[in-house]
Specification:
Two copies of one chain form a homodimer. Chain A is an all-alpha fold and 125 residues long. Helix content of chain A is 63%, strand content 0%. The N terminus of chain A is likely disordered.
């Protein structure tokens, strides 16, 4: 139900940056490293939580935590180039990556990445 | 969409045993003890599995195990008197309870309980 556009079905969309080969390599490395780190956090937290289980409710709380983390990670790590500036913006805000990790990306990517990170810092909890 | 019955909507159903006060007390004790034991098994297994986590896939395997166990336990421990002989039949088959735990129940309960336990022993894996 989107409204008609002057240039329907064009690809790439005008505002969507294109990624060079070297930028794709930088993006892949930063993405994979952040994901790996996040998964290691979940592994560490799972062991720690499991060791503190004292009653059945603790078990189902762990199950709920794992389900939520799995869904969140699935949603968050979306390696489509159309999503990647948003993904990195959030990861930058969460300090899972630094600007240093993204060095080599053009300003057309860095600008929306920084903007989202700043927006989240301003408005998130 | 059930076919018409000679005695529709009668309660208790003719073949459903009624439970005396003392039988209810025995049932409750056996039921609670088996459930407690089963939950302790899950707690022990969760700690053990969590300690052996080596890679992310192990985490999601634990999540899947917990979800399945929660659903299975929810289904299995159904304390409606209309379901109780089936519940105990299965628990007897699984050796989570013994006939000793059910001592004091009338033969009208023990017979279907034993029958189901034997049936499961014969046909289950």
């Amino acid at each position: 139900m989107s409204s008609p556009s002057a240039t329907p079905n064009t690809y790439p969309y005008q505002n969507e940056p294109t990624w060079s080969k070297s930028e794709k390599a930088i993006a892949r490395t930063a993405f994979d490293a952040a994901l790996k780190q996040e998964l290691q956090d979940v592994m560490r937290k799972t062991k720690q939580t499991a060791n503190q289980i004292k009653e059945p409710a603790d078990v189902w709380e762990l199950e709920h935590y794992l389900t939520e983390r799995r869904k969140e990670i699935d949603r968050k790590y979306d390696y489509r180039y159309s999503q990647l500036t948003q993904v990195f913006g959030r990861l930058l805000y969460e300090r899972r990556i630094t600007e240093e990790d993204l060095r080599g990306l053009g300003e057309d990517k860095m600008k929306p990445i920084r903007s989202l990170a700043e927006l989240l810092a301003k408005y998130a909890a």
